[in-house]
Each structure stands twice: as structure tokens, then as C-alpha cells.
Specification:
Oligomer: heterodimer
Distance between the termini of chain A: 42 Å
CATH architecture of chain A: 3-Layer(aba) Sandwich
Strand order of the largest sheet of chain B: 1-2
Helix content of chain B: over 70%
CATH superfamily of chain A: P-loop containing nucleotide triphosphate hydrolases
Structural class of chain B: mainly alpha
Radius of gyration of chain A: 19 Å
Strand content of chain A: 15-25%
Strand content of chain B: under 5%
CATH class of chain A: Alpha Beta
Order of helices and strands of chain B: HHHHHHEHHHHEHHHH
Number of domains of chain A: 1
CATH topology of chain A: Rossmann fold
Strand order of the largest sheet of chain A: 6-7-8-3-9-10
Mean pLDDT of chain A: 91
Low-confidence stretches of chain B: none
Order of helices and strands of chain A: EEEHEEHEHHHHEHEHEEHH
Number of helices of chain A: 10
Largest sheet of chain B: 2 strands, antiparallel
Radius of gyration of chain B: 21 Å
Helix content of chain A: 25-40%
Largest sheet of chain A: 6 strands, mixed
Shape of chain A: globular
Number of helices of chain B: 14
Largest interface: A-B, 42 and 28 residues
Distance between the termini of chain B: 33 Å
Low-confidence stretches of chain A: none
Mean pLDDT of chain B: 90
Chain lengths: ~260, ~325
């Protein structure tokens, strides 16, 4: 049984079907690419899977140790608790908070300090706090951000902001990580580093990663399987080589014959 | 762990110094009835501003209903101490006010906190007015528009000082913790917060209820200090007064709220002789702040004992390093 099953998922905005009858499956510890021309519905699909939008019809089913949980219509914070985490296409960090706080917030729902032990500063509060900070430091060091702890998120350079978003998403301890254009705006060297990092975290954390990206080198390089979306529909699925040679995909990207 | 104890003890020492400073002033006969009233008012305004800042500055929800919650505390205390003029009655009044304000804030917060910006401001303003009008009309209990007077005075500057310190402690402990950070994330970006597992509604409501409960405490202290309650004291303008303190000090800074309450308190005192001109000067001061420092006196800056200690230890390290070399 796959980790996540997307069944006939549809989202209509008025008369426009931004996502229509999409079927996708994600296996455990798999790196999947999601590509398609602008406006194909990639980000909408992410928003549906993470609960930001409610589907018009169809199902999203998460495999929880053999039991299936239906994710449609569940609030985003509960979906995050179930293990689906994401980054955003247009960076959505908590700009006026420090790097440390940004990541700590993502750990909040799984490390309850308790209202009263917080107000009264009981030992439990300090213990939980120290334990969380230690974890954050470990995560930050993977992404070369360990010396930025006290920097405000908005003061980080662009590439580091993108990396911090991934750290923050990882801090929720996800099973599936959705990365929405993680390499957008990065230079080739930064992209190469990111590619390495994505591979590494997939391996180290045993994650399933879904990746929207326009940088085809990156996609073809890291993804084991690729879905291609056009006008809200899946037009192709397969490994990078199959996708590269798929006439439907070439047509979608370069335009077909008239 | 030891470090934390050091920081907490420093805070305690700061509070003690201010307390005994005031104590000396009172015993030295420097403080007359008029300045006593100013000090009491500043203390109460600090509680109000710090709690409103929790709602507006930290959770980012624009509330104009603070006077309503203050009225609940004031009337709870007034009614109980009218029938039971003991310190126990006063304490019960405070607790009952807190409970009522909390329950009402919870009941109205859950539906209204779905609104944003101006709409939320109007909704909370409406709630505050409903509370006031209810108080006026429940004349059997509240003596209607005439108010209740001749109450015993249980809140003196010492009681107010202790409650003020506790309020600041509760709010800043809350903010510098997991739930507090979650509240801040709601202000920063609601969609991102939800996607990171933060139940945004819960934290908005928590901040709103905590703010309302503290406002009720301020109301209790105010009523008992004034020895009277009148519904017109808890109108729209009272909410605006508190809002001004918060904006003046810097939205999102507890330190700012405290400093602004003190500064505006003394400004009010010195402007007392100018009569109605006072309001104009007051307004000009606020306009000046908005022009020259739009983020308020302190912006989002916070006074931090930890930072000072860190600075000192860094200096020590530096001097050690220089002597070594």
C-alpha cells in the first residue's frame, strides 16, 4: 500500500478546474518530481495536499501504519501533525523572528511545554526548551545555518532563506516533504549544493520528498519518478528518461504542431 | 539551569529595587494624594497596555474591546466588596472578574477572531459596548448609570504594584515560550503557521482570553482604588486610551508598553494645569511620535537581562583575550 494515495482529486475555482481528476501515489522514501508549464496547477495541488485548499472532489489518503486516514477537509495544522510538511514558492518565513524561533515554532505542536509550566517556569519548561534548541541546532548545522541562530529571518540572504524554509519544514518531523521550487532564484552553485542536500536529507531522515521545480537539470538529476501536469491534469508519469522522451511532455513544453 | 536562575533573580532584584524605591518615597512624605493617584493610574495602565499589547502586538489581532473586559472586573469587585467589604471579598471580586472576563472572551473570541483587521476591531468594539450597555441596564445589580460609590479601598499602590509585576511576568513568560512563539507566528504569517502545525485559532483565542483576564484584573484594581464604578468610565474612549499607550510604546514590545504608560502618566500629570489644552498637547505628542518614530517609542525592542549578562561576559572574554596576548 502506498504512503499517500491521491484519487481523482479536483479543485474548481469558479468555472476553472485548476486541478482535475489527478491520480498520484507516493511510496515510502521516494523522491518524486512534479513538473509542468506555468499555471499547470502544481502549487494548487500542493495546497490541496497540505490542506490550504479544500478539494472540490476526490480523495487524499494517507497510510498510517496500515490504516488509511482521509486528509480532505482537515485543517492544515492537523495535516502537518500527521506528517505532511512543505515549503512555499514565495518564501513564507516568520520574517521578524529569529532563525531559532522560526524553527522552534515548527516543533511546537509535538513538544508541548504546557501552559502552566510555561507561566510558572517549572523545570519541565527549561528541559523541553533546551532539548528543542539542541535539535534545532543540529538541523541548522546540516544546512550550514548554525551561526545564524539569532539573525532575523528577513535579514538572511535569499539562498539561506530558502534553506531555512526547508529546515523549518523538517522540524515538524514529517513523513512527506513538499518542496515548492526550492531552487528558484538560486545560482548554479547554490543549486548544486541544494541538490546534494535534498538527496542527503531524503536518505538521513527516510523521507518521501515531492518537488516542484523548473530547473530541469535538478529534477532529472535527483528525482526517481516524475509526474507532469498540464492544465490541471497529469499528462505523463515515469522515470526521468521516459519523461524526457515522452512526446506529450515535449509538446506541453515546446508546443505541438498546428 | 543555573543561568536561568541568575536571570530570574536579576528580574526579582529589579522589581524589589523599584518597590523599595517607591516605598522610601512614600515613607519620606514625598508623595501626596495627587502623586499617589498618578502612580496608581500608571500601574493600572501598565497592566492594561501590556495585556492589550499581547493581543494586538503579539498575536496581531486588532481589538478595541479592552474597556469592556476592564468593566467586568471593575463591577465584579465593586458588587462583591459592596456587600462584603473585606480583603477576602476584594480577592474574590478579582477572581470572579477574571473568570467572567475569561469565559466571555472565550465565547466571543472563537467566532470573532475569524475576522481580520478592521472587521475584528468593529466586532470587539461592539462587544465592549454590549457589556457596558448590559451593565447600565442591569440596574438591580449594578445600580445602572448612577454607578456604585462609597466602596472600601483595598487596592493601594502596593497591591497594584504586585499585580502589575505579576501581569508583566505572565505576559513575558508566555511570549518567551512555545505557546508564545506559536502566537507570534500567527501574527507573522497565518498560512505558514498552519502549515507548520500551529493551531492558529487556538493561539489567537488564548492570547485574547489572557489579555481579557488581565484587563479585568486592572478593572478590579481601578474600581477599588477609585472606590467607585461608573459605566461611562468604561466606554470606547477608555479602549482608545489603552490603544494609544500601546501604539506610543511600540506595537509588539512589552517594555514599550510599560515605558509608554509611565511617560504618558507623567505627561498627564504635568499637563494637569492646562485644562482642556492638555488633550491637544497629548494629541500633538502622539502625532509627533507617528511622524518621527512610526513604530512607536521602542519599536519591537525588548529589555533583556540575558542580553546584558551576555554583553558583560563577552567583554570579560575580550579583556581576558587581550591580557593573554
Amino acid at each position: 500500500m502506498p504512503l499517500l494515495t491521491v484519487n481523482q482529486l479536483t479543485k474548481n475555482f469558479g468555472g476553472l478546474a485548476a486541478v482535475s481528476h489527478v491520480n498520484i501515489t507516493l511510496e515510502n522514501n521516494e523522491l518524486v518530481g512534479l513538473i509542468g508549464p506555468n499555471g499547470a496547477g502544481k502549487t494548487t495541488l500542493f495546497n490541496l495536499l497540505t490542506g490550504v485548499y479544500e478539494p472540490s472532489s476526490g480523495d487524499v489518503l494517507l497510510n498510517m501504519d496500515g490504516k488509511e486516514a482521509r486528509l480532505n477537509g482537515i485543517k492544515p495544522y492537523k495535516i502537518a501533525d500527521l506528517g505532511l510538511s512543505r515549503t512555499f514558492q514565495n518564501i513564507r518565513l516568520f520574517k521578524d523572528l529569529t532563525v531559532m524561533d522560526n524553527v522552534l515554532i515548527a516543533m511546537n505542536s509535538k513538544n508541548k511545554e504546557g501552559f502552566f509550566s510555561t507561566i510558572l517556569r517549572l523545570p519541565k519548561f527549561y528541559q523541553t526548551e533546551e532539548m528543542m534548541r539542541q535539535k534545532v541546532r543540529e538541523l541548522l548545522s546540516i544546512f550550514d545555518l548554525e551561526d545564524k541562530e539569532e539573525t532575523l529571518a528577513k535579514n538572511l540572504p535569499y539562498g539561506q532563506q530558502r534553506r531555512l524554509e526547508i529546515v523549518r519544514a523538517l522540524a515538524t518531523n514529517p513523513k512527506i516533504l513538499f518542496l515548492d521550487e526550492p531552487a528558484a532564484g538560486m545560482n548554479p552553485q547554490e543549486t548544486a549544493e541544494l541538490t546534494k542536500l535534498i538527496r542527503q536529507i531524503q536518505k538521513d531522515f527516510g523521507l518521501t520528498i515531492v518537488l516542484i521545480e523548473h530547473d530541469m537539470n535538478l529534477v532529472m538529476d535527483v528525482c526517481e519518478r516524475i509526474y507532469v501536469l498540464e492544465y490541471g491534469q497529469v499528462i505523463a508519469e515515469g522515470n526521468p528518461d521516459e519523461i524526457k522522451n515522452n512526446p506529450r511532455v515535449i509538446e506541453a513544453y515546446l508546443g505541438g504542431e498546428i | 539551569m543555573k543561568k536561568n536562575l541568575k536571570y530570574n533573580l536579576t528580574w526579582l532584584a529589579i522589581a524589589a529595587v523599584i518597590y523599595f524605591g517607591l516605598f522610601a518615597l512614600y515613607n519620606g512624605g514625598v508623595i501626596n494624594l495627587f502623586t499617589d493617584a498618578i502612580i496608581a493610574n500608571i500601574g493600572i495602565n501598565i497592566i492594561l497596555a501590556v495585556s492589550l499589547n499581547l493581543i494586538i502586538g503579539f498575536s496581531g489581532q486588532f481589538s478595541l474591546g479592552h474597556a469592556g473586559f476592564m468593566a467586568i472586573g471593575a463591577y465584579a469587585t465593586a458588587i462583591i466588596t459592596r456587600d462584603n467589604p473585606t480583603f477576602g471579598g476584594f480577592a474574590m471580586g478579582i477572581l470572579l472578574g477574571m473568570l467572567l472576563a475569561g469565559v466571555i472572551a472565550l465565547a466571543v473570541g472563537i467566532p470573532t477572531l475569524r475576522l481580520k483587521g478592521d472587521y475584528l476591531a468593529i466586532a470587539t468594539l461592539g462587544i465592549s459596548e454590549i457589556i457596558r450597555i448590559l451593565i447600565i441596564n442591569l440596574s438591580g445589580l449594578t445600580n445602572g448609570p448612577a454607578g456604585i460609590f462609597g466602596l472600601p479601598q483595598f487596592s493601594n499602590w502596593q497591591v497594584i504594584f504586585i499585580m502589575m509585576t505579576l501581569s508583566i511576568l505572565i505576559v513575558s513568560n508566555f511570549i518567551h515560550s512555545g505557546p508564545g512563539r506559536a502566537t507570534l507566528s500567527v501574527r507573522e504569517d497565518e498560512i505558514a503557521a498552519e502549515s507548520m502545525g500551529v493551531n492558529t485559532t487556538k493561539y489567537k483565542v488564548t492570547a485574547f482570553v489572557l489579555g481579557a483576564v488581565l484587563a479585568s484584573v486592572a478593572g478590579s484594581l481601578f474600581a477599588s482604588y477609585q472606590q467607585s464604578v461608573f459605566p461611562q468610565d468604561y466606554g470606547f474612549m477608555k479602549s482608545i486610551d489603552v490603544l494609544i499607550i500601546v501604539v506610543f510604546g511600540g506595537i509588539g514590545s512589552t517594555t514599550g508598553a510599560v515605558v509608554a504608560a509611565v511617560v504618558l502618566g507623567f505627561l498627564n500629570m504635568y499637563l494637569q494645569d492646562f485644562g482642556n489644552l492638555r488633550m491637544i498637547i497629548y494629541a500633538l505628542a502622539i502625532i509627533a511620535i507617528m511622524i518621527f518614530k512610526p513604530s512607536g517609542l521602542l519599536g519591537t525592542w525588548e529589555f533583556s537581562v540575558k542580553r546584558i549578562f551576555n554583553k558583560f561576559s563577552k567583554k570579560e572574554d575580550d579583556s581576558n583575550a587581550s591580557t593573554n596576548s
